[in-house]
Design goal:
The chain has 484 residues and is of the alpha/beta class. Helix content is 34%, strand content 22%. A hairpin with a 6-residue loop joins β18 and β19. The structure holds ligand UAG and adenosine-5'-triphosphate. Ligand UAG is lined by residues 27-30, 41, 43-46, 48, 51, 150-152, 154, 175, 177-178, 181. The modification N6-carboxylysine is found at residue 215.
């Protein structure tokens, strides 16, 4: 693809040299090749403006930045108000506004984004509608899988994938970081789904208000005829719906019914199966899910309403929901012997943990053993709350390591010991795989073990057992009878 500098700057209301041919856009100087426009970003770890010279040496033909430069460069420099915002607009125009050829569904919220995106994607695919899915687990474009590095890809990769996609629908998770950093921008979504909001990422957003406002930005990215679908089972959803109404942004709600909704949840059960009774314009429908937990009642309900808005019939949506099998590593049962049960789950927030542990407790008759840790360099303020949640629901709690993200192991272990101090039923076992082996050795008929935090992800640390993830560890220990 090619554009002139002038063509690219036009949407920013700026002028550039029409003779400079731009062959691509890049925000990382290390990835620059000849003909590229480099966008310098003042980042959280370093400052892209420091790498302008290196970008030019690598072939950058023009630079965009948000700072005044003291020196004159050998290529044009354009100063903008906000480099990330400019990058987003530039990427959108470079790839010819690719969102306009798709029906775009953006899903935001603290928990349930991945599950909801899988459900909607499955419902669409099940009825022969081609759809992409972008999120934490993977990016699926034109039926091909790509590894996911961020829940919401950076603005360039996102626009590039939307451009490459020949699928009719795009179902994507939109994280608060993605919204705050303009990875998505402008009126690009046909539907914006909000699942819920609770304590998470306060290291980044500072407080829940800031976190909420970042999430709310998704609704400013709705196309003119776009619609919001708002989960009101967390109190933030009620506020969002009221504010959307004030701003004349059309929206539907799901969660607790307030009356007047054309589709609402009449009742549900979570055990032994998850079943929802939905009233859809006066007709009652019963839906039986293969995924467990009260949280999935709400994920299914949000997906139902979104799919109905897209134009599928109740029968089609129900068939889609009932044939959906599982999301990798989200309340996934791993088969073990002796009548006990083992689950792995991606819960990494107090709220998510509460749902996951309650679901596990419902599935077993005796004691629940919970193994988990905390990712370093991620919201430290949620840790004590998560320990309390676990301590309240589980019978035995084992704190262990999660990803250290380059930080000191001894520091994390010291924190785990400190967090466990007030409680009698909490044990710290440094090595995650040893913690799993130990708990497996304790399990009796009717007991349950749940390991949370990593879900399907591979370990980032080296542990005693050379397995790649929690599931493999359980299976290998069971197979080899490597019990203590
Ligand atoms: C805190 C955060 O979100 N950081 C993101 C941000 O990094 P940044 O732009 O601030 O990068 P930086 O390292 O400070 O560098 C500044 C600039 O200098 C450039 N640079 C740097 C070095 C060099 O030699 N040359 C050069 O040009 C960098 O490319 C960058 O443009 O922008 C980058 C590009 O989009 C992201 O990769 C990066 O995500 C980091 C890796 C990250 O871990 N983010 C997480 C927290 C995140 O975004 N998570 C959410 C999901 C959260 C959830 O689970 O709900 C997600 O969407 O994945
Ligand atoms: N609607 C929900 N409400 C509360 N907790 C939920 C909900 N849906 C899922 N969870 C819990 O959160 C965990 C993560 O679910 P999911 O991956 O769908 O959320 P997410 O928002 O995509 O999180 P991430 O972006 O970090 O992947 C699940 O394993 C479950 O424990």
């Amino acid at each position: 693809m090619n554009k002139t500098l002038n063509e690219l700057l036009h949407p920013l209301n700026m002028q550039g040299d029409a003779n400079i041919n731009i062959t691509g856009i890049q925000f990382d100087s290390r990835k620059i090749t000849a003909g590229i426009l480099f966008v310098a970003i003042s980042g959280y770890e370093s400052d892209g403006h420091k790498f302008i010279h290196s970008a030019i040496q690598n072939g950058a033909v023009a630079i965009i930045g948000e700072k005044d430069l003291q020196e004159k460069l050998s290529v044009p420099y354009v100063r903008v108000r906000d480099s990330r915002e400019a990058l987003s607009i530039l990427a959108n125009h470079f790839y010819d506004k690719p969102h306009s050829k798709h029906k775009m569904i953006g899903i935001t919220g603290t928990n349930g984004k991945t599950t909801t995106s899988y459900l909607i994607h499955h419902i669409l695919n099940h009825h022969g509608k081609s759809a992409d899915r972008l999120g934490t687990v993977e990016y699926v474009i034109n039926g091909n899988m790509r590894e996911s590095s961020l829940t919401t890809p950076d603005a360039i990769l996102l626009q590039q994938m939307l451009h490459e996609s020949e699928d009719e629908y795009v179902v994507m998770e939109v994280s608060s970081h993605g919204l705050d950093q303009y990875r998505v921008h402008g009126p690009m979504f046909d539907y914006a789904v909000f699942t819920n909001l609770s304590h998470e990422h306060l290291d980044y957003h500072k407080d829940l208000e800031g976190y909420y406002l970042a999430k709310k930005r998704l609704f400013r990215c709705l196309k003119n005829e776009g619609k919001g679908i708002v989960g009101t089972y967390s109190s933030w959803g009620d506020r969002l719906q009221e504010e959307l109404a004030e701003e004349l942004i059309p929206s539907l709600s799901f969660g607790q019914t307030k009356g007047g909704e054309s589709i609402y949840l009449k009742s549900y059960q979570t055990f032994p199966d998850v079943k929802l009774v939905i009233d859809d314009n006066g007709e009652e429908h019963i839906i039986k899910l293969n995924i467990q937990g009260e949280h999935n009642v709400y994920n299914a309900l949000g997906s139902y309403i979104c799919a109905r808005e897209i134009g599928l019939s109740p029968k089609e949506v129900i068939e889609g929901l009932e044939t959906f099998e599982a999301v990798p590593g989200r309340f996934e049962e791993v088969s073990i012997e002796n009548g006990a049960k083992a689950f792995i789950d991606y819960a990494h927030t107090p709220d998510g943990l509460q749902y996951a542990l309650k679901t596990a407790k419902e599935c077993i008759e005796r004691n629940l053993y919970h193994i988990f840790g905390f990712r370093a360099k991620r919201d430290p303020f949620k840790r004590a709350i998560m320990v309390e949640v676990s301590q309240n629901i589980s019978d035995f709690v084992f704190l262990t390591l999660d990803d250290l993200n380059g930080t000191d192991k001894a520091l994390m272990l010291a924190e785990l010991r400190e967090l466990s101090k007030p409680y009698e039923n909490i044990v710290v076992i440094d090595d995650r795989t040893e913690a799993i082996a130990y708990v497996l050795s304790l399990l009796k008929n009717g007991d349950g073990m749940i390991i949370t935090g990593k879900g399907p992800e591979n370990y980032a640390e080296e542990y005693r057992y050379k397995t790649r993830n929690d599931k493999e560890t359980i299976l290998e220990i069971m197979q080899e009878k490597l019990l203590f």
